[in-house]
Amino acid sequence: MKKQNNNSKEGFTIIEVVLVLAIAGLIFLMVFIALPALQRSQRDTQRRNDYSMLSSAITSYSTSNQGKLYRLAGATNSVSEQVSKVLDAKTYINEEGEDPNGKPYTLTAYTWKGWTQAGNAADSAAVPAESAVNVIVGADCTGYDARGYSIPKENTSSRAFAIYGYIESGSNTYCADSQ
């Protein structure tokens, strides 16, 4: 008959438990580091989609008004006025009128002269406020700031406009134009 050894213990050693906990901790750490970047990327994608919807709405506005985009900014002519007009974001961007963080978009249309008069063109390194979206009539995105990022620049085409807004990653600015 065989004798049973009562000294034999089953289970994990402390080193095995610590090793498993360390690996699990590293996995959680990697997830928590990557998660905010992924969320920023998703919000930026939503902002770009919102800006694209705005661009489509402005193009439609232009078609309905014989290409006279300066009226969007509140101007009565395209040459001499320096005008800006606050627009309803619910009409031009999305039904809620909100950015991906739930803050109301501040949508302003400017003529190029109104944009420069407000000091925006002079301060090329300025980052728009988080929920601010600017439509600059008589501009495109061929200008560059000191950091090398695209910014609005005057364009004398009657149908030219630039959308200049905030994104969370990279330069913190987004510029798209009608060209």
Care to give the gist of this entry?
The chain has 179 residues and is α+β, with helices and mostly antiparallel strands.
Folded structure, characterized:
This protein has 179 residues and is an alpha+beta fold. It has one domain (46-177). Helix content is 34%, strand content 21%. It is built from 3 helices and 7 strands, in the order αβαβαβββββ. It has helices spanning 14-64, 89-92, 112-117, and strands at residues 84-87, 106-111, 132-137, 139-144, 150-154, 161-166, 173-177. The strands form 2 sheets. Strands 1-2-3-6-7 form a 5-stranded mixed sheet. The chain has a two-stranded antiparallel sheet with strand order 4-5. The mean pLDDT is 85.
The proportion of residues forming helix, as a percent range, comes to 25-40%
DSSP, total strands:
7
Q: What's the average pLDDT?
A: 85
Number of helices: 3
- One letter per element, helices H and strands E, the order comes to HEHEHEEEEE
Terminal residue distance? 93 Å
Shape: elongated
Which features characterize this protein?
alpha+beta, 179 residues, single chain, elongated, 3 helices, two-stranded antiparallel sheet, five-stranded mixed sheet
